[in-house]
């Protein structure tokens, strides 16, 4: 292969730089080609206000995609949970690497666990999905917590706790892992308590649909099980007609009998942010072998959730 450097478009945030850097390293190893990072400023980075108004859907992704479409960069790495469910025709997800820990975590003062937070504890999170599930758990288990809407990058969010403004904040384990701050976690939340966002913990590596050579090379980073799982999760989100800031949690995993993988299970949840009303269901089926089969699994669960009133719980927007 030629020695011309592959250009990887990346946001400048610490998290984006960390995950782009890690993918760049792997791409160098598997292709033998140099990879160069090209920094791109996104609308969501420039304007916090704009982000609040738009509601978050895809703002971080749009500028990267524009750069790909203009041929300014060869490929880009996205946090899969930030990716809109609609795929532009001119671009493809050339690889979905092995997902890391999909769980949400708590960073709390005094090494506190979620269930040990004192009465009236203030927990920061801007995600309606996290608010809904934390409040639902609190109601069911007699905890008295207040979810406080916050936004900002990981550093900013953890600072609320260090400064004593909040008792705890909720973050994704994967993000903390990637920036080397997983040690600050005081509690890993079971997915039975808080189902993660569709695609959480996974990355998507995207490039132009007509770049066959690069698609083939990047394919070495693809994990078919992760791809099937996140496809089912995103299909659920799409069928619920919800965006990445909707109160929707979803997680697909493999059910195994010993070493033998038997089925894929997809769990989904929708709830009001105050946690008073929830629709939570799961379905299992044969492990999807194609995109269409994975997509069908998500649609099937969405249909059941809608039949139980899921649509009526998604009306409110926290941001
Ligand atoms: N909402 C922002 C965002 N997008 C991706 C991650 C990191 C985790 C991941 O890749 O799933 C985070 C931070 C967080 O939710 O704590």
Task: Please provide a written account of the structure.
With 319 residues, this protein is an alpha/beta fold. It has 3 domains: 6-97 and 201-222, Periplasmic binding protein-like II (D-Maltodextrin-Binding Protein, domain 2, 3-Layer(aba) Sandwich), CATH 3.40.190; 104-188, Periplasmic binding protein-like II (D-Maltodextrin-Binding Protein, domain 2, 3-Layer(aba) Sandwich); 231-310, Porphobilinogen deaminase, C-terminal domain (Double Stranded RNA Binding Domain), CATH 3.30.160.40. The protein is built from 10 helices and 13 strands. A 5-stranded mixed β-sheet has the order 2-1-3-10-4, with helices on both faces. A hairpin with a 2-residue loop joins strand 11 and strand 12. The protein is globular. The mean pLDDT is 92. The chain binds the ligand NCc1[nH]cc(CCC(=O)O)c1CC(=O)O. The site of the ligand NCc1[nH]cc(CCC(=O)O)c1CC(=O)O has 9 residues, from strand 8 and helix 7.
How are the SSEs ordered, and which strands pair?
Layout (H helix, E strand, L loop, with lengths): L5 E5 L3 H18 L3 E5 L3 H4 L1 H7 L4 H11 L5 E5 L11 E5 L8 E5 L12 E4 L3 H14 L3 E4 L5 H9 L5 E5 H6 L8 E2 L14 E6 L3 H7 L5 H16 L8 E10 L2 E12 L6 E9 L4 H17 L12
Parallel strand pairs: 1-2, 1-3, 6-7, 6-8
Antiparallel strand pairs: 3-10, 4-10, 5-8, 5-9, 11-12, 12-13
Helix pairs in contact: 9-10
The ligand NCc1[nH]cc(CCC(=O)O)c1CC(=O)O binds next to strand 8 and helix 7.
Structural class, judged by helices and strands? alpha/beta
Q: What is the helix fraction of residues, given as a range? A: 25-40%
CATH architecture of the largest domain: 3-Layer(aba) Sandwich
The total number of structural domains is 3
Tell me the distance between the termini: 47 Å
- Find the CATH topology of the largest domain: D-Maltodextrin-Binding Protein, domain 2
Pick out the low-confidence regions: none
Give every kind of bound small molecule, once each.
the ligand NCc1[nH]cc(CCC(=O)O)c1CC(=O)O
Taken as a percent bin, the fraction of beta residues is: 15-25%
Number of helical elements? 10
The biggest sheet amounts to: 5 strands, mixed
GO molecular function: hydroxymethylbilane synthase activity
Function: Tetrapolymerization of the monopyrrole PBG into the hydroxymethylbilane pre-uroporphyrinogen in several discrete steps.
Cofactor: dipyrromethane
Keywords: Porphyrin biosynthesis, Transferase
């Amino acid at each position: 292969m030629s020695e011309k450097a592959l250009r990887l478009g990346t946001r400048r945030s610490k998290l984006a730089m960390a995950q782009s850097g890690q993918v760049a390293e792997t791409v160098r190893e598997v292709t033998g080609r140099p990879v160069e990072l090209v920094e791109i400023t996104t609308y969501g980075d420039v304007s916090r206000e704009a982000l609040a108004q738009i509601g978050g859907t895809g703002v971080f992704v749009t500028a990267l995609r524009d750069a790909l479409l203009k041929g300014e960069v060869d490929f880009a790495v996205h946090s899969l949970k930030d990716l809109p469910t609609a795929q532009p025709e001119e671009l493809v997800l050339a690889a979905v690497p092995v997902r890391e820990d999909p769980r949400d975590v708590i960073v709390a003062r005094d090494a506190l666990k979620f269930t040990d937070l004192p009465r009236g504890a203030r927990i920061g999170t801007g995600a309606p999905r996290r608010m809904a599930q934390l409040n639902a758990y609190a109601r069911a288990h007699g905890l008295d917590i207040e979810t406080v809407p916050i936004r900002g990058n990981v550093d900013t969010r953890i600072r609320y706790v260090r400064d004593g403004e909040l008792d705890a904040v909720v973050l994704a384990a994967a993000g903390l892992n990637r920036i080397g701050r997983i040690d600050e976690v005081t509690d890993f939340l079971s997915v039975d308590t808080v189902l993660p966002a569709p695609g959480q913990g996974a990355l998507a590596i995207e490039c132009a649909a007509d770049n066959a050579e690069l698609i083939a090379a990047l394919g070495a980073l693809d994990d078919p099980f992760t791809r099937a799982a996140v496809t089912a999760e995103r299909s659920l989100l799409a069928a619920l007609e919800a965006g990445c800031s909707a109160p929707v949690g979803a997680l697909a995993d493999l059910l195994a009998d010993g070493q033998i993988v038997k089925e894929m299970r997809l769990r989904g949840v929708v709830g009001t942010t105050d946690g008073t009303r929830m629709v939570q269901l799961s379905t299992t089926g044969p492990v999807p072998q194609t995109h269409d089969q994975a997509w069908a699994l998500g649609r099937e669960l969405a249909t059941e959730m809608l039949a139980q009133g899921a649509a009526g719980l998604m009306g409110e927007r926290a941001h």
